[in-house]
Amino acid sequence: MTAATTTATAVATPAAAHARIAVLVSGRGSNLQALLDAIADGRLHARIVGVFSDRPEAAALDRVAPGLRWSRDARGYPDRASFDAELADAVAAAAPDWVFCAGYMRILGDAFVRRFDGRLLNVHPSLLPRHKGLHTHARALQAGDAEHGASVHFVVPELDAGAVVAQVRIPVLAGDTPEALAARLLPEEHRLVAAALALAVAGRLAERDGQVRLDGQPLFGPLQLDSAGILRPGSRH
Questions:
Q1: Which residues, in sequence order, are CB contacts of 73 under 8 Å at separation 6+?
Q2: Cα dihedral angle (81, 84, 90, 91), rounded to 10 degrees?
Q3: Where along the chain do its domains lie?
Q4: What is the set of active-site residues?
Q5: Alpha-helical segments (H) within the chain
Q6: Which pLDDT does position 99 carry in this prediction?
């Protein structure tokens, strides 16, 4: 398959104009804001139908109208399964086409993942499969990585182990600190999120048997975001 046939530009379709995205958040919501900005300027043909959080104090909730907010303190539930069940019911009530974890800091249980299987995406601040879990910027520096980045992947019950859709890469510079690396990556992560969700809502993205499919064809490595904001096949995976 040539690059010309698989270049993943965001193509608007009538279906995409009606795509519905539910967003799960735990913190400040900068990736949620990236989606809102992409919708506002026409790069993402969708609408946010609900923002859901395990932390009622999460600043991300303030980025949308009160009618779109749902939050519960997960610490008030007897176990993860009971919280996940209530969260799943609330998300399902919004009838989303896609569910996107944008800085959602709780591990989703098997039942939640199965309920939204094939339409549940997450963004993770590393070049998966490297540095799953937390503290990715510090771990990239400790490992002596020449590159760092972010990945959008399908969610499976195992932490950060789902099929990777797309990545963006930045160089690790001499003298980088975890804070400096994180700050330089974040705007690139925002571009990645908007581009990957544009493919999803346009109906071009799917997952089958643990493999990502673009326009019905299997991808054998993650798409890579270029400087123009276009996702292209990459040779590195």
A1: 54, 55, 56
A2: -140
A3: 3-233
A4: 124
A5: 3-6, 30-40, 80-93, 110-115, 136-142, 178-201
A6: 98
pTM (2 d.p.): 0.91
DSSP H or E run through 49: strand 46-53
pLDDT in tens, 154-204: 999 999 999 999 999 999 999 999 999 999 999 999 999 999 999 999 999
The pair of structure tokens assigned to 206 is 């799917």
Q: What is the pLDDT of residues 57-102, one digit of tens each?
A: 999 999 999 999 999 999 999 999 999 999 999 999 999 999 999 9
Whole-angstrom distance, CA of residue 124 vs CA of residue 110: 19
Residue bearing tokens 């980025």: 63
Could you say which architecture CATH assigns to the domain 3-233?
3-Layer(aba) Sandwich (3.40)
Q: At which residue do the structure tokens 């939640």 appear? A: 112
Q: Are 60 and 28 in contact (CB under 8 A)?
A: yes
> If we measure between CA atoms, which residue out of 191, 187, 202 comes closest to residue 231?
191
Nearest of 84, 167, 180, 172 to residue 123 by alpha carbon: 167
